[in-house]
């Protein structure tokens, strides 16, 4: 049996946790919107065509912000197509996914859905095929009270009050050659700066996310951030990061260690932001928006076939990764990584929310069920609020094909405003249980109130509509806290949520 220790102190804090790190993403892609959140005619559709079962699953996750409407999709999207009478909205070829967008669900409908889901919208503008003035226009449409062309158009379209969208993405993955209207770092930095200026002149209360590299594997990664920030630092608030991991070679040990790379990615982008801050003698600090993260690889081959077969189809089943148990473990570790870096990561979006690389799946006309990755996200979103605590972990380590010195115990801890302490922990060890020696002495008298475990003997086990509870969390026996110390058994390959509350 292995042993690891975790020391927490109530005064050693990383940061207040911005609840927006539990954000998600809905793109006009595949069956995310049509057949996902929206399916008029479904027995569980509400009066606006939105599925109530999906809404309930989203609300249980607790998603405070949803990025919308893309993704790659947004770089060819004209926002004006998505407002006004539905019958007059154009059908458009979507060159990001080679499908047809009908614009049946547009800005107003999505805003209505988001309100019901208790989410704010993080709205991405098109800086691919469009210009800063179009970004200015939609800020005026969404946020200006009235008395101008676009705000009056919103009112005429049925929304007397402004939509109040506070967080905006200045395009999407603009360094990617696959992106419509992709740019060099300098071209993007200049365009983002000019868009940012006039968007904020219309509504000074908004915050803006500039596109970082579409991934740390891009040849231009680093230089892109440096060059574009040099052009737009003063007018933006966040830099975006995107990262998906996969396990095509079935190397679980390396796959579960992928968050070593994620940690490194975050620290590198932070360093670049701070280098530009230094160079500019600026007092302003740029934070990070990790606005696309997840596991993504299961559906790659299937997607090639679908796109070839059904080019220009509508609501095709694209990017429908079926997540297994090891994916849930990595998603747990990714959440731990976000918490560990919550002093700089203020926004993060699990990409995506429904059907498209998503925790929630639906069948057209049928049921709605939770994938394996649903559960760690729900736990972190529910219990990982308040303050992130510095977690001093001493753990046995392992080497694998891709990484060296990987701690078998990956952990983060939070303290709620009510004084509850929660430890999130993944045991990456493939075979052995680990005893986690917890030092909680600084918190006074705590008792364990819950130990949630997710484990399955088969790392490839999945949930399906027929068997939706194949991989679900269970309750483990509680461990006694004695003099502020607890020795918690953590099974091999498991996601754990250890919850403690003041004894009195
Ligand atoms: O989330 C799926 C796609 O991944 C997004 O459209 C794009 O931004 C990224 O490459």
Describe this structure in words.
The protein is α/β, with parallel strands linked by helices. The chain has 2 domains: 2-9 and 388-502, Golgi alpha-mannosidase II (Immunoglobulin-like, Sandwich), CATH 2.60.40.1180; 18-383, Glycosidases (TIM Barrel, Alpha-Beta Barrel). The chain is 26% helix and 24% strand. An 8-stranded parallel beta barrel has the order 3-4-7-8-9-10-11-12, surrounded by 6 helices. A 7-stranded antiparallel beta sheet has the order 2-15-19-20-25-22-23, covered by helices on one side. The protein starts with a strand and ends with a strand. The relative contact order is 0.15. Alpha-L-arabinofuranose binds next to loops. Alpha-L-arabinofuranose (AHR) is lined by residues 27, 70-72, 172-173, 292, 351-352.
In brief:
This protein is of the alpha/beta class. 26% of the residues lie in helices and 24% in strands. It folds into 2 domains: 2-9 and 388-502, Immunoglobulin-like (Sandwich); 18-383, Glycosidases (TIM Barrel, Alpha-Beta Barrel), CATH 3.20.20.80.
Features:
seven-stranded antiparallel beta sheet; 504 residues; TIM Barrel; 26% helix; alpha/beta; globular; binds alpha-L-arabinofuranose; Immunoglobulin-like; 2 domains
**Which small-molecule ligands are present, each listed once?**
alpha-L-arabinofuranose
The residue-averaged pLDDT reads 97
Give the total of beta strands. Answer: 25
Query: Shape, please?
Result: globular
Q: Judging by the overall fold, what is the CATH architecture of the largest domain?
A: Alpha-Beta Barrel
What is the fourth-level CATH superfamily of the largest domain?
Glycosidases
Instruction: Provide the low-confidence segments as ranges.
Output: none
**Tally of alpha and pi helices:** 11
Provide the domain count: 2
Sheet with the most strands: spatial strand order: 3-4-7-8-9-10-11-12
Main structural class:
alpha/beta
Strand % is: 15-25%
Helicity level: 25-40%
| Rg on CA atoms, Å | 23 Å
The major beta sheet can be summarized as: 8 strands, parallel, barrel
From the 3D structure, determine the CATH topology of the largest domain.
TIM Barrel
For the record, the CATH class of the largest domain is: Alpha Beta
Give the end-to-end Cα distance, rounded to a whole number of Å. 34 Å
